[in-house]
């Protein structure tokens, strides 16, 4: 018993001797990894798949790290992803055009174990969760009226509709992992700068979506707007749902167009981050290692 207490006290004293708390702020850019099909490009000559990940884009992080000794610590980080535009649908036919992109706007958190190989090189490995945000789809559609449609609206043949809308997609609570390898360069006792390569492995299962902006104008052949707001968020076209729920099962006789089968979308990425560290207590000297 005395030996156990002695060992526990020794470990506690060792931890106290080397304990160090630090905070850091960083920014960087990530590219998609293991890109999945996100959409298609269609023309009169054929169809081409579009691949990518919503994890691509600019990111910023705030981290707090506590080292128990000169090697091992724990890390808690909060981050924001400002995702790059990803092609969902691009259509270019005579009389019909679509340009639809989607991008992530997401907040996340990660808890990791940190291991220092020496005073400069370190690695992180931990769990990653998405705290909030959305995948925002921005859609433009142009459709030339047939003679019957033009006559019904009272515009000349060659007139067309221009529709712009935004739809926000929300996902279920995901769990992924994060891994990073970094290099820290001390400037003085308290401040260091660092660079690191970071990998996020995470996918998001869709839960629901909501159209937040919608507008359709009628445009004459010369480009003059003849009718503004033919359709709006409060007056959606027939068959267009303001909200959609994503489920795992649908009956064979389903007639509810506001429900669709759920899909998983990729957020995985490889990134490079640069930042600054502030240490509340000076690191242990190399002589203590």
UniProtKB/TrEMBL annotation:
UniProt KW keywords: Signal
Domain called Outer membrane protein beta-barrel: residue spans: 9-219
Signal peptide feature range: 1-19
Protein name: Outer membrane protein beta-barrel domain-containing protein
Entry superkingdom: Bacteria
